[in-house]
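Worked example

This section walks through a single chain of length 580. The input is the sequence exactly as stored; nothing has been trimmed or padded.
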Amino acid sequence: MKHKNIFSFTFSLAVSLTLLLGACGPSGEEASFDDDVATVVALTQTATTAEAGDTPSTDALGVITGIVHLAAPPTPAMVVYALDPSTGVWASVETAAGEMSSSFRLEVPPGGYQVFASAGIGYASEDGWSLAEVNVESGVTTADINLGPPGQSICGGNFGIPASPDGQYPEIPGPTEECKTAVMSGAVEGGLQPLADDCTALDFAIETAFKLPLTHKMVFITSSSISGQTGSGCQINALGDGNDFESAQAAYKAMKNIMENDDWVESLDLPCLGHGGMGPAAAQACYFREGEICEVMTTIRPIDMELCAEIDGPIGVCLAALEPEQKVVSITVTCAQGLEGVEIPEDEPLSQQFLVEFPTDATEITLENSLQPGEIHDYIFSAFAGQEMTVNLQVTTDGVETPENAVMDIGATGYQPIARDVFGDWSGELPIKGEYFIDVKSVTDEQVTYSLTIHISPHEEDEEDDEPEEDGAISGSISYPTQTSPPLHIVAYNQETAYWYWIWVAGNSSVYSITGLPPGKYKIIAYSEKDLVGAYASVGGGSPLIITVKSGETTQGINIATWLDRNNPYFPASGDPAGW
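Given that input, the structure is written out below as tokens.
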């Protein structure tokens, strides 16, 4: 049964339960921890047997907390060790298996510790080439010590793992100093190298625009590069707070302006150079110039995860409650030259989609609009086989008729194109019953205005039109921009009626399905309670795309992958009809 402004429930979804990740360590992975996941199984010890009376008192201990994860889920059970190389003091803890990651907590005396696990992972130094020293103070918790696998290079793993102090696991050697030096100096033959100016031009542009402190370093480019190459690159890091940028997306847009002003071309091919990471809110893009590549990653996180201790829900709920000064915004730009075998993508044309609604009993409609250089307007409507259609496009530039400045493509969804690059007028008989489109495209470097008139002859109903239609369905994936995603309301808005339909999906769901949808045209929008809002949308302008649901069929591949702030102009989250 249909409901007007009343929800209908359909729960058809696949849920991938994961641990909530919420804090950011040097590896870029976002995490929080659950003290119940790992239980300390060995009190602080030394590599040699100690007398019972030598065990430090609990009051003298400090605490190390964090998560463990592999390069890809799931994460198996493992043993985490904290070892002070200078004293031989160590402690260990068993972690449970997890679908994404597992948490741990260790109590140790004050000292400087290396933290690693039996699975060959560790807490890396800032440059990724060794295990970091974790300094522990009495009565203090050192958090966000997140263990992950070493980066890979021509030297093998970028850092080694000591033999476990309990004798259970052998040493995993790290790279030789000679190989490490060759990579970091850019002396790797045939690989990616830092930009010729070592990123100084971008450094100047970022510092001038943002007035933020910057750091610089040479980094290794992993084999996950888009071209499959390895090598080294130059990297710029900028840190600000919520007063500088209200969100990761705001920082991303500011960086986009800097890159494009320097003739870099954006691409959505990810991963790019493998640096950065996904945060509680994050944005990432690749940029290309001739033989050069840059990856831009922006994230936002709490300045201290303790601020979130009393706030329930995903990390985004905490971020929304914090003051600007309590948030850290990070911008990481990694660049290299020597790119091979990758075509530089052309700029993505800005595209907007419009549903054509003829007035009641009318056979003709005139639509007026304007186009920016390179822009496309996509008009869609339904029609029947045998109807006669006449289209007229009138174009003006600065008040002067310029029919050569815009063209039309005409076609039917799932059918061969009917006409392409048409100037002015077109007429003909429509070949099928279904969805049609008319794309109006700018072919000039100036703004133009146009008038599009569509005339379709009346349709004579036949017996086929009277056949009852079955409900259809929509399915797709959910690609939230953080490692974990909150519960969502996913709403299907019928573009031809006032009806809408919604489902609830649990946090960390990776796919969804909405069934029981009457045939028609829909827009799909996903709402979280307080975080971002997403949609099945066009890449260029962010506008939700209109999809067609057919009788008795499931429209697949309606993937929700475009996420914007709640106050965005394309699909603001304030309009969630289901409410929370």
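What to look for: The helical segments are 177-184, 200-210, 248-261, 315-321.
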